[in-house]
Amino acid sequence: MGTDVPETLTSDREATAAAILELTEEAEPLLSKEDASEETRGQQQRLCAAIAEVCKDEEARAKLTASPALMQSVHETLSAACAQEALPVVVQCLRAIGNMCFDNDAARQALRSTNGVAALGTALQVIVRHAARASENQQDQQQPQPQVQLMAGPGSILNAAGESEELQKELVEAGVVDNLMWLLSNAPTEQEKDMALNALMRFTPVEKAMQQLATTTHLSTLISRLEACSDVEDADSLGELLKQITNNDKNLPAFAEDPALIHRLMALAQVGAGAADEVPITRARVVAAGVVAVLLSDDACLAVLWGNDKHRDELLTALRSWMEPALATSAAKQRAEHAGEAVAGEAAQSENQGSQALQPRPHAGEGEEVSPLAALSDPAMRQVVDKAVAGLIGIGNICRSDDNARVLGETPGLLPALVALSTHNLGFVQHAALGALNNVVKLKDNRNKAVDAGAVDALLRVMNDPQAPLQYLACSSLRILSSADSRDLHTRVATDTDVLHRIIHLTGSEVMAARGEAMRLLVTVVKTGRAAEIIAPIVTGGAVDVFVRMLQEEHPLFKCEGMIGLAVASAAGDECEQLLLANDGAPLTAAMDQVQQTEMVELGLNFLAALTQLIQNRGAAVTALPVTQRAATFARERLRLVPEPAVQAQVRQFLSLIDAGDDNK
């Protein structure tokens, strides 16, 4: 591409660079001439071509880009050539700018200070306009037309944009996105389309660029290329573009404006696996599935695939099928674990006889457990897990209404699948499964079904994972499941010291999300424990210290729930009462400190409830404590001023017990 440059100029690029710099120092540098004669334009075209060739050498490029005057001259020449529609000069200027900007921040910044960004945007538009005209003429005359050299346009944009988000934003303002999309759709060669796609990828961090792509026309172009995709790198680039577009909720309705876009993505995701050279390739189908999953978070897009029974059934079947291969590997993992336990047991029994047990492996066709590193490095396995994640995200996004959650809960095999994948050996699969499970069980009707599917065991296992996001999701789901009819969770926490200690350990996590959910889980299990034989072992096993620590948290929610935990503990029997009254009521004193510091009415009421319960059970041993007298003063001076009947009733009950104790002295 480009004007031929004599070999004598490219054999020693550094010497040529020095000669070019000398030209810019003359009284009337060639690039600064404003006359539009054919001779001048030809000279400028050849000089820009020489600059483009010379800048392929790193040292020569550094020498040329050290001259602001030269770069400004090239930018001004480009602007003038655009105004005069001098296409050959435009092309060579673009090549020169693109090569100067390659891995060169100085050249990129010079664009911003010399109006070069606007010139680039205009130049790309000029190239596209000429290419469109040539295409129309070829169609009208039905004979070949001279082809415009298109690579220089997106190539210069690609190099100029670099990693500078500010420069990327300015190029977007200069209008490059629509013209790059025209090239992606209409350029005559795949090489030119690939260059346009690569240039578009520079603008994924720019929100406005993604908004400009969120039109039915541009989305259709991207989907069409995905449908014809034969290259993994191409599919990943398209996937990243679509991902960044859909990351902004405001862009999602554009897909629903033309429902055919969503149906095309769905059809693409559902194409069955075939020969290795099949178009679209597997990666393109995985990308389509991921986009569909995100679109389900938008009501209008969801309505396209959920609006009638037929579409709903097809969607649920598809989401389930995307998870199936990953489920097979998860099942293989569980079989291996169970087999390992069985082998260990047999080995222990036969140790005295010197026998050695062999661990059975899954039968062929049943799927084998794959290590996380192997799954991430093997393209085929990566497709499996990525598509499973798409299915899980889709399920989680559908659960935005009770009706939808009810449908999912009634879908055969769905909850067991979510439970199984929540213990997958890849963390990002677990995360997606836990997120979906968490959303599904928010509907009360689904909680017992989840427990029956083994959710409690699975979630307790996930709690032991070292990753804080997984700990958070496991604790969150367990907290929700604590309101199920089953008492399995409560019994496990009360009787299995490992489980209780793990929850208590997580309440000290440095990660706020994990710490907070573990605290809330502990309080919720105590609140819903119902029976002293469940509550007491938890309280005496370390929960009181956790409740006191919750009072130290900044968020009012944790303070209130910690105080509720203390209130429940006060009614859980002698051992719990003794813990609260130990060291002159140290836990109660810490709680009262928070009541006075925050002056939160709810906090004060729950504290009075705890003290009331303790006074009723322990009498003078409680009323004589200094903390009780502090509480009485607070009730008289502050809580009595709150007019709500419930507050007044609690204050009266508490103060009547205090007064009765004083009378009995």
TrEMBL record:
Residues 349-358 have a biased composition (Polar residues). It comes from the Eukaryota. GO terms for molecular function: guanyl-nucleotide exchange factor activity. InterPro entries: ARM-like, ARM-type_fold, RAP1GDS1. Residues 330-371 are annotated as: Disordered. This is Uncharacterized protein. It comes from Salpingoeca rosetta (strain ATCC 50818 / BSB-021).
